[in-house]
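Human
Can I borrow your eye for a moment on a structure tokenisation matter? Give me a protein, with the fold worked out from its sequence. Write it directly below this note and I will take it from there.

Assistant
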Amino acid sequence: MRGIFSAIFEKVDDWYIEYVEELPGANTQGKTIDDARENLHEALELILLANRELTEKDFSGETSWW
């Protein structure tokens, strides 16, 4: 399944920061815009995987962490 997210890029001094407003915690930085984009792509994959694993645990009857 693929999703579409809005990536926001900002240049701060010599760095680029990038984040996704729709997904809290999805923010990265890089020396170049390509580095920031690559880092954000990796962060999105990890966050979505972690969220999926937490959801699957909740539906499997295991104790929730919250």
Remarks:
- The first helix runs from residue 33 to 59.
